[in-house]
Amino acid sequence: MKTNTWSSATAAAVGALALLVTVSGCSGSSSSGGSGGSNAGAVPQSGAPAASPSVEGSPAAASPSAAGGAVPAADWAKWKLQPLPARPAAPADKPVKLTKTGQVPVISSIPTSDKVVFVTIDDGEEKDPKFIEMMNDLKVPVTMFLMDDAIKNDYAYFKPLQALGNHIQNHTLHHPAMSTKSAEVQKQEVCGDQGVLTKEYGTPPFLFRPPYGDGASTANLNNAVQQCGPRAIVLWHETMQIHDMQYQSGDKKLHAGDIILAHFRGPKDLKGETMTDMFGELLSRIQEQGFAVARLEDYIQAPS
Asked: What domain range includes position 104?
């Protein structure tokens, strides 16, 4: 079990920048990502979340779609995968509640008793049509943190993924290490991407992920995020590499509520492997540990 899920952010996220720039998938390296940093900011909650009822159906035969239906076992077999456990229904009382104003929290996991993890995919450099086919078949929910420099040559690619119910969130215009930039440049990076993503996809992002996790605990970045619209900074607990995950926890295991970081990457960055190969490996690691994949935004209440 994780402890102190909502502890104050430390300087670890910033101190690890040199390592992160070298190894993080966000940096464009071929196979690995950096550590995500710690959580910060008290988020108003209404007590410990109750366990959500399970979706009906045998996880050995099928897994739920974004609409609550079942994904046929044949669709998993098509991708040479075992079905994931059925994810529980979204909690009626979301365990993370964001506010309209004030300091934004830093989140790397969700407090929940549901045996679920959350998959996030960053940047948007690789635009493999087979990945859209895979997602249409498997209906695995993901959150996309998109960066304008990576997506501006083909904004349309991400719309079929959005149409499946997957949210598009903010990841800056140009992917800088934010703590190395002035307060004004940080604001331009966040507000600029916010404007592009809102225009192209019709919905203002309410979550923000800093490149490399850098600067997450700094006042300058928090102020920039507040001014530009997102209401939380989202980090991660695991990073998907080509065939396996890099864990922050000492036991090298997934835990309920963990947020996993992956990237839109292809053969040139994955040593010849494809986006679907990498994502299949990610799902296999999750399935082996008995977790379902839930939608991050189903557990976070955006300000109304």
From this structure: 12-39+96-301
